[in-house]
Design brief:
Blueprint lengths: L1 E4 L2 E5 L3 E7 L5 E8 L20 E4 L2 E4 L20 E4 L9 E10 L18 E9 L5 E9 L4 E9 L6 E6 L2 E5 L5 E6 L7 E6 L3 E7 L11 E5 L10 E7 L4 E7 L5 E7 L6 E3 L4 E3 L2 E7 L2 H16 L13 E3 L1 H4 L5 H10 L7 E4 L29 H9 L3 E6 L3 E2 L4 H5 L19 E2 L5 H17 L2 E6 L21 H19 L4 E4 L9 H4 L4 E3 L6 H11 L8 E6 L12 H8 L3 E5 L7 H20 L4 E6 L6 E7 L5 E8 L9 E3 L9 E5 L3 E4 H6 L2 E3 L8 E8 L3
Parallel strand pairs: 24-25, 25-26, 26-29, 29-30, 30-31, 31-32, 32-33
Antiparallel strand pairs: 1-2, 2-3, 3-4, 5-6, 7-12, 8-9, 9-10, 10-11, 11-22, 11-23, 12-21, 13-20, 14-15, 14-17, 16-19, 17-18, 18-23, 19-20, 27-28, 34-35, 35-36, 36-41, 37-40, 38-39, 38-41
Helix pairs in contact: 3-4, 6-7, 9-10
Length: 726
C-alpha cells in the first residue's frame, strides 16, 4: 500500500494514489492525488519560474517561489503567504515557522489516538506512514500520520505536535489535514442549514481568496457540517473527479480552500483556530482529531460509497457486527411533556402485534420535569408521573415483547434542578457575568474530570437500576460564555476542546459499561451529526423536521458522507408539527424506509386504516433490512435540483434492490416520468414489485422504470427488485 521510491512516498489504495515528495532542502511537497499512477520520478513535473516580488527558493535545482510550492503542510511567515497548516507561539510570542523533513516510518496497522474517536484498524486493515519534521524556528517537532485503507479508498490523517524543547509553547493552530492542488477549476460542495433544515447541499465555484466553513459553537452545529468535497465543474452523481474530506470530531472545526495568486488551491481541515489555544509544556505532545479523505473518479456517488464502507468497516459503533436497530415509537411528538404512566401504558398496549419493538420516553420522565424550565439534570424517575418508578412500564413492555428507551441530555442543566443546586460551579460561565441560557439551560463543564465522573455515576445508577434498552442522548444548545474558571488565563482557548474530550470520555465509559443498550445521538435534532458521535453511537436523530418532503432533502444531503442506516427517520403525524404539511402515510413510510425506520406519533390519533398499515410497514422494513445489509447506496434524483427526489439501495451481490421515488407538487396533465436505476446486473432479469413486471437490469438502468402518474402532491413509491434465477 505504501512505497518509498525516488524520494517520494506513494500511498496506494485499490483505485487511488497519493504522492508526497521530500525536496532537496527538506521541504515536504504534495505532488499528486487521484487515480493510481506508476511509481516513477516526479522531478520533471516542477518547472522553474521566476516570480517578481516573491521570495525565491531553489527546489531540486529549479528556482521557484514559496507561495507557489505545493506544500504538504504549510508553514507561516517564511515566504509562503497562503494560510498556514499550523501556528505555534514560542516563548517570545512569535509564530513564524518552517518545516524540514527529519525521518519517516512505515508500519502495518495504525496508531491509536487516545481519548478521540477514530478509525479502528489492525495490522491487516491499514498501513501507516509517519513523517517526522522539525520546525526550525520554534524547535517543535511535527509528526504527520497517513493511514491507508486500501479496500475502501480511504486515507486517514492526523497530526501530533511534540515539544522537545525546555520551554513552554502555545499551539494556536494544528490542522489534521492539509494539501496543495495544482492549478485547475474547482467547485466546493458543503452541507449547510439551520435548525430543522440541516445539511442542505450547497455547491459553488471556488473564488480567489479563501472559502471557509466551520463552527465556533462548541458543537459541530446545525449551520455547517465537518465535511467538504472539491469537484471539477462537470462532476455529477455518477461521473467526474471528487475529493472528499471529513473530520472525525464533534467540536469547533474549520475547512478552508484558498486559490492563491498562481491559481494553486490549498485545502485544510481541523480544529477551528478562532478560539483555540493549547499550552504545550516541555516534553509533552498534542494530537489533532483524525481527518479522512477519499478520491473518486466516479462522481459523488463513488465518494459517498467509499465513506459509507469506511463507516461500516472501521468507525467504532457503526462497524459493530450484527447491529439490531430497533423499530421505535418515540413519544415526543405524541405527548411532549404531558406524559404519565397511564398514557404510556395505553400506548404500549396499542403497539401489540404492530412490529414496533421499543417505546422511547422522551423529555419529561425524570426529576420533577413538567416543562423546559426545570429539573434538567435530575436523572431519576419522576415519581409523580410514575409512582412505582418504571416497574409497571417495564412489565407492560415485557408482556408485549418490547424494550424501554429513555431520553437524556447529560451535558446541560436547568438552574431549577437538584443537580444545579448541589453543583452550581459545574457550569460553564464567566466571572461576574450572567451566563446566557438557551431553552433555559446552562452547559456543564465537561473539561473538568470531576464533572465527567459525577455524571457517569448518576447515569450508571439510572441504567443499572432500570432495564433500559435504548438511550437517546440529546444536546439542545451550543456553548456560550466560553472559558473555564479552572483554567489559567493563558489557557482559556483550551476549554471547548477539553469539553468535547470529556463528552467523549463519558460516552466511551457508558457505552462500554452497558454494551446491550442501544445509544442514539441527538442534538436539538441534527446539530451534532458527525463522525465523532457515530464512533460511540450507531445512529443519530437526523433532524427535528419530520416532514417527509423536507426530510427527503435533509437525508439526501446527509448521505453525501453518512450511511443511510445512521439516520433515524420516523413516520410522524400530519399535519406535520414543523411545516403544517399533510403527506400521505405511504409517502411518510417511503421516505423513511431505507433509513433507520421508526415512528413518532400518538397511536390514539391516527386512523384505523393507518393503524392497519403499521404491521405491514414494519414487516416490510424488516424484510428490506435483512436483504440490504451493507447495501450500496445511490442518489438518483436531487430534490435540490428538480421536483422530485429518488434514491436506491443495492445489495452487495447485486441481486436485490429497493428504490424510493417522491414527487413534490403535482402538475396537471404532466409528462410521463421514468426512473433510471443503477448498480444492477445488466443481463439479470429482476421482478419489480409492486408493479408485477419483469425487466432486465440493462433496461432498468438505461430506459428506466415508469413512474405512475401522480394524482396528488407528494406521492411516493417504494420499488422492490429481486433477481430471478435462470
Amino acid at each position: 500500500m505504501i512505497a518509498f521510491k525516488n524520494n517520494c512516498f506513494y500511498l496506494n489504495t485499490a483505485n487511488t494514489c497519493y504522492c508526497i515528495e521530500i525536496g532537496e532542502n527538506g521541504a515536504l511537497l504534495h505532488r499528486y492525488y487521484g487515480k493510481r499512477i506508476a511509481a516513477q520520478s516526479l522531478d520533471y513535473f516542477q518547472n522553474g519560474v521566476h516570480r517578481p516580488s516573491c521570495f525565491p527558493v531553489c527546489i531540486n535545482g529549479r528556482v521557484t517561489t514559496y507561495s507557489e510550492l505545493p506544500y504538504e503542510y504549510g508553514a507561516f511567515g517564511r515566504g509562503d503567504t497562503r494560510f498556514p497548516s499550523f501556528k505555534i507561539e514560542d516563548d517570545n510570542g512569535r509564530v513564524v515557522s518552517e518545516l524540514k523533513y527529519v525521518s519517516h516510518k512505515i508500519a502495518c496497522g495504525k496508531p491509536p489516538l487516545e481519548g478521540l474517536p477514530q478509525l479502528d484498524a489492525d495490522a491487516n486493515d491499514a498501513q501507516t506512514l509517519e513523517i517526522t519534521a522539525d520546525d526550525i524556528v520554534s524547535g517543535i517537532r511535527i509528526k504527520l500520520y497517513y493511514s491507508v485503507f486500501e479496500e475502501t479508498d480511504i486515507i486517514s490523517r492526523h497530526t501530533r505536535a511534540v515539544n522537545n524543547t525546555e520551554k513552554t509553547v502555545y499551539i494556536k493552530q494544528l490542522d489534521s489535514l492539509a494539501m496543495d492542488f495544482p492549478p485547475d477549476k474547482y467547485e466546493l460542495i458543503t452541507l449547510y442549514g439551520s435548525w430543522a433544515r440541516e445539511r442542505w447541499i450547497e455547491r459553488y465555484p471556488l473564488h480567489h481568496g479563501i472559502s471557509s466553513v466551520g463552527s465556533t459553537a462548541g458543537i459541530t452545529g446545525h449551520v455547517q457540517n465537518p465535511f467538504a468535497a472539491l469537484v471539477t465543474p462537470q462532476t455529477t452523481e455518477n461521473s467526474g473527479d471528487v475529493y472528499g474530506f471529513a473530520l472525525i470530531y464533534s467540536g469547533d472545526f474549520r475547512f478552508q480552500a484558498q486559490i492563491g495568486q498562481f491559481e494553486t488551491t490549498r485545502v485544510s481541515l481541523g480544529i477551528n483556530s478562532e478560539n483555540f489555544i493549547w499550552e504545550l509544556k516541555p516534553h509533552k505532545e498534542f494530537c489533532s482529531p483524525e481527518a479522512v479523505m477519499t478520491y473518486s473518479s466516479d462522481g459523488l456517488n463513488g465518494m459517498s460509497q467509499s465513506f459509507h464502507k469506511m463507516c461500516r468497516k472501521y468507525l467504532g459503533a457503526c462497524s459493530a457486527k450484527n447491529i439490531k436497530r430497533p423499530i421505535v415509537l418515540n413519544l415526543w411528538e405524541a405527548m411532549y411533556f404531558d406524559s404519565d404512566e397511564e398514557k404510556i401504558l395505553k400506548m404500549i398496549e396499542l403497539c401489540r402485534d404492530t412490529g414496533i419493538d421499543t417505546v422511547v420516553l422522551d423529555d419529561g420522565w425524570y426529576g420533577r420535569r413538567k416543562d423546559e424550565n426545570g429539573s434538567l439534570g435530575d436523572w431519576y424517575v419522576n415519581r409523580e408521573k410514575f409512582p412505582q418508578g418504571f416497574k409497571k412500564i417495564l412489565s407492560a413492555c415485557k408482556k408485549n415483547n418490547m424494550g424501554l428507551g429513555v431520553w437524556i441530555e447529560p451535558e446541560a442543566v436547568n438552574r431549577d434542578s437538584e443537580l444545579y443546586r448541589a453543583h452550581p460551579d459545574w457550569c460553564i460561565s464567566l466571572p461576574n457575568v450572567k451566563p446566557l441560557e438557551s431553552r433555559n439551560e446552562l452547559v456543564l463543564d465537561y473539561g473538568r474530570p470531576e464533572v465527567v465522573d459525577g455524571m457517569y455515576n448518576i447515569l450508571y445508577k439510572l441504567l443499572h437500576e432500570n432495564d433500559i434498552k435504548y438511550v437517546k442522548w440529546d444536546m439542545n444548545r451550543s456553548i456560550s460564555d466560553n472559558g473555564s474558571v479552572f483554567l489559567e488565563k493563558r489557557r482559556q482557548g483550551e476549554q471547548n476542546h477539553r469539553f468535547i474530550l470529556g463528552v467523549y470520555e463519558l460516552m466511551a465509559r457508558l457505552t462500554k459499561s452497558f454494551p446491550d443498550v442501544f445509544f442514539e445521538g441527538c442534538s436539538s435534532g441534527g446539530a451534532r451529526f458527525d463522525l465523532g458521535i457515530l464512533y460511540y453511537m450507531p445512529q443519530i436523530w437526523t433532524s427535528d423536521d419530520t416532514d417527509a418532503y423536507e426530510r427527503s432533502k435533509i437525508q439526501y444531503g446527509t448521505s453525501l458522507l453518512y450511511p443511510p442506516e445512521t439516520m433515524s427517520a420516523h413516520i410522524t403525524i400530519c399535519p406535520n408539527h414543523q411545516t403544517g404539511r399533510t403527506v400521505s402515510f405511504n409517502a411518510r413510510e417511503a421516505v423513511a424506509a431505507l433509513f433507520s425506520f421508526g415512528y413518532e406519533l400518538n397511536l390514539n390519533n391516527i386512523s384505523e386504516d393507518e393503524m392497519r398499515q403499521i404491521p405491514l410497514q414494519t414487516k416490510r422494513r424488516k424484510f428490506l433490512e435483512a436483504n440490504l445489509a451493507n447495501a450500496v447506496f445511490y442518489r438518483l434524483c436531487s430534490p435540490f435540483e428538480g421536483d422530485c427526489a429518488a434514491w436506491q439501495a443495492v445489495s452487495e451481490n447485486g441481486e436485490f434492490s429497493a428504490a424510493v421515488y417522491l414527487s413534490s407538487l403535482n402538475i396537471p396533465n404532466g409528462s410521463q416520468r421514468s426512473l433510471k436505476l443503477t448498480g444492477l446486473k445488466p443481463e439479470t432479469v429482476y421482478e419489480v414489485r409492486p408493479c408485477g413486471i419483469r425487466l432486465s437490469g440493462s433496461l432498468l438502468m438505461n430506459m428506466g422504470l415508469p413512474i405512475p402518474a401522480a394524482s396528488s402532491d407528494f406521492e411516493a413509491h417504494i420499488f422492490i427488485l429481486k433477481a430471478l434465477k435462470n
